[in-house]
Amino acid sequence: MQQPWSIYLLAIFMLGLDSKLVGQAFQPEFAEPLMNLTVPVGRDATFRCLVHNLGGYRVGWVKADTKAIQAIHVHVITNNHRVAVSHNGQTIWNLHIRNVQEEDRGQYMCQINTDPMKSQMGYLEVVVPPDFVSEETSGDMMVPEGGTAKVSCRAKGVPEPRVMWRREDGADIVLRDANGVKTKVDVYEAEVLTLAKISRSDMGAYLCIASNGVPPTVSKRIIIKVHFHPVIQIPNQLVGAPLGTDVTLECYVESSPKSINYWVRDSNEMVISSSKYEVVNTVISSFESRMALTVRGLTATDVGGYRCVAKNSLGEVDSVIRLYEIPGPSIKNTSATGKKEEYKYSTPIEGPDNQFGSADRSDDEDEKETVMDVTDTVENMVKTNRNRTINYTQLNSIHEHKLSNKVRKIINKFEIDETFTNSSSELHSSIHALIVVILVLYSNAHCTLSL
Ligand SMILES: *[C@@H]1O[C@H](CO)[C@@H](O)[C@H](O)[C@H]1NC(C)=O
Ligand SMILES: *[C@@H]1O[C@H](CO)[C@@H](O)[C@H](O)[C@H]1NC(C)=O
Ligand SMILES: *[C@@H]1O[C@H](CO)[C@@H](O)[C@H](O)[C@H]1NC(C)=O
Ligand SMILES: *[C@@H]1O[C@H](CO)[C@@H](O)[C@H](O)[C@H]1NC(C)=O
Ligand SMILES: *[C@@H]1O[C@H](CO)[C@@H](O)[C@H](O)[C@H]1NC(C)=O
């Protein structure tokens, strides 16, 4: 009850002698608080100070942290020419800051020159959209398989941006710890992405995305290439066709950097496209391709081994497909295509680069094998093979079984090592290969049982 009186008396006492102000029954008052402003850098900001009963007093603007007077009444004081003032009658007083910069951030005070002066404050927040710090942001990268790729994206902005990683193709990011334990995430949030024990399936474009709620969000594309020794997979190692038909042999190659792929016959002559042969290389992905060799109008001289060879800067691998004749015209256009259910793995037996499987296999070890079934089939074949003719139908069926990678490698090593010069030595080596397979399968089975 006392306060209005004391203010009134104080005002009369202080201002009473000023004839201009004698009519002022009331002191000026702020009609509403000064709003806090949040403005992206480069835009304009306006503080609005609402005053009642200004009378003969004046409104001034001060930047609180630097105490720099911005404006008094209708005059701009600061030499910052981005600052302007405007007013609407005696009530609305505006401070305009054009093309806001980060140094404009801070508390602004609207003052009335009463005694004591009256003031209120509002905060100008200047927000800055994210931007990458190029010195701390990785470029494209090449890593040997099994190595570690560490890519970073450092982003600045106000507020502090969040940085996250995604794969451009939408696949999961695979993180492996020191023990090789994998964690799959679709989004990884951190400035640094470390891909330890990197696999070829991790190869590709990664996007780092920085956002802080201030548009625009920015992203950077970083390509991680994983280098490894080439690997060949063969759907069908033995391909039979009747004379006169067209037959296609195929090899699937995984290689990075890209390999040079070609076909070689037993005689070591390279197979090139001609009226007899059609050689086609098809790119499947950044590191996978399909080699297809079509032999047109099969003749007796076309029968034999065909090696597909893949060579890159890290090494070379080859694998043999044997083409044989099926008697009779009943089978038309035998082709290896379309039977992709099982691949044989042709990895080089020696060399340090050969410790990794293929993309679709490397992560899925411990396939459950029908080991005993295969063993039986192979066993029967050899037993019933006393008259020294291989039943290729039967042999093909074995290749369609689920062989373990180890067995595949052994079969394959065999066929790389052997040179088939005529059907008799071919037969011998086939039988030899089968015996090795049986030994391996038996020892596997034995191990499994004794465990
Ligand atoms: C402005 O922000 C300050 C703290 O940052 C707060 O205390 C004040 O109430 C805000 N003003 C308005 C009008 O919201
Ligand atoms: C082989 O297949 C092609 C097309 O698939 C066909 O045009 C051609 O006549 C076939 N040849 C024989 C011998 O069946
Ligand atoms: C041995 O060869 C004959 C034809 O000469 C064939 O009929 C028979 O099935 C063969 N035996 C086996 C076990 O393949
Ligand atoms: C080869 O094996 C298949 C399947 O086991 C059998 O159907 C076929 O009769 C055999 N052919 C010969 C010539 O023994
Ligand atoms: C091909 O096989 C025959 C027996 O059928 C053998 O006498 C000859 O030495 C073999 N040729 C080669 C190059 O091994």
Automatic annotation (TrEMBL):
Signal peptide: 1-19
Domain Ig-like: 28-113, 130-219, 230-324
Record key words, sorted: Cell membrane, Disulfide bond, Glycoprotein, Immunoglobulin domain, Membrane, Repeat, Signal
A GO cellular-component term linked to this record: neuron projection
Domain of life: Eukaryota
Protein location: Cell membrane
SMART domains according to UniProt: IG, IGc2, IGv
Pfam families, sorted: I-set, Ig_3
Record region (Disordered): 335-367
PROSITE patterns: IG_LIKE
Name this protein carries in UniProt: Ig-like domain-containing protein
Organism expressing this protein natively: Manduca sexta
